Amino acid sequence: MYRILFIIGLIMSLLISFCSYLILRLYQKTRALVESEDTFRSAMQNAAIGMALVSPRGRWMKVNKAFCEMFGYSEKELFAFDFQAFTHPDDLNSDLIYIKKLLAHEINAYQIEKRYLHKSGAIIWALLNVSLVWHDERQPKYFIAQIQNISDRKHFEEANNNLLIALEKSNKELESFAYVASHDLQEPVRMINGFVDIILAEKQPLFDDETKEYLKIVYSAGERIKHMVQDLLAYSRVSNNSVTMYEFDLNDTVKEVLQNLNILITEHNAEISTDLLPRIKANPIQLMRLIQNLISNAIKYQPPGNSPKIHLNVRELEDSWELAIKDNGLGIPENQIEEIFKPFKRLHSWDKIKGSGLGLAICKKIVELHKGSLTVSSSPGQGSTFFIRLPKN
Q: How many other C-beta atoms are found inside a 10 Å radius of the C-beta of residue 95?
């Protein structure tokens, strides 16, 4: 009998101890939950961005101070409306598909940019982050929404886009004007030089020697204008044209360039060599102009009495071709390397080396239209190497 009572007492003692343990654990969990909720409530209330708890029916359950300040309403005023009342009419359905996915357990959270309406009627651009808290797998508890005001950023982006559009329009108008103006200038320049040429060719002298010298200066100026007009037209054509690309043999292009420059090559006793060049995908007409401009410059920009030596080679890279054109010319000072690609920028006067100052600007424009790059390695007295990098695709 005493043994049975002892066993019963022992079992009761164990049950009491176990119940005490369960009560203690429940108390600890309840306390932890309360502390967690207090921490969440404090973090939410003091957050720098707007935060809100929204019921599955779309009603506000809790909003923080930053949220109220963002929309211009008090907490009491907000609770009189659902979340759609503050959404811009054009964005009412922007996140419904994501809400459906949250409720279907297809996603855990989503982030979108959308517009809201301030109490004053002003539009607020916001970055919205939403997640869903569940009672259990079937019963949603509430949505947690974090809303960051990005209106300043969106206004800056809009202003930047408008500026880019305006610049593009202005650039096209300027290029169009340059084309028309340079085209219309050709005829009067041609007439002036034609008449001067006739006067200077007369066997019977019409003017004294001093006047003839003045006429020669006029003729030289006319030639300079003619070259500048031609280069302006070329620059405008390159700027306005889209690039049609197809595969061709670069050896054939270089051969044609050398034929075009035959007189210049002969006059300067230039020596031009090339490696075996590949087939590449580009615009052959524009690439011919590019190579021709660079070789022409390499021949002209030489020390007095120097015989130009120019070499072309191509290196295949992982996703591009690199064409190098190396010369033994005057070279370029380091502080001028970035300047030479600007329109009308010249390092030498017209009297020393003829040119409009547009050749390298045209080259750079051609390379940019091919989504490539044009760089140069050079130093005075050591010659220059121009590197043209063109993407394979």
A: 19
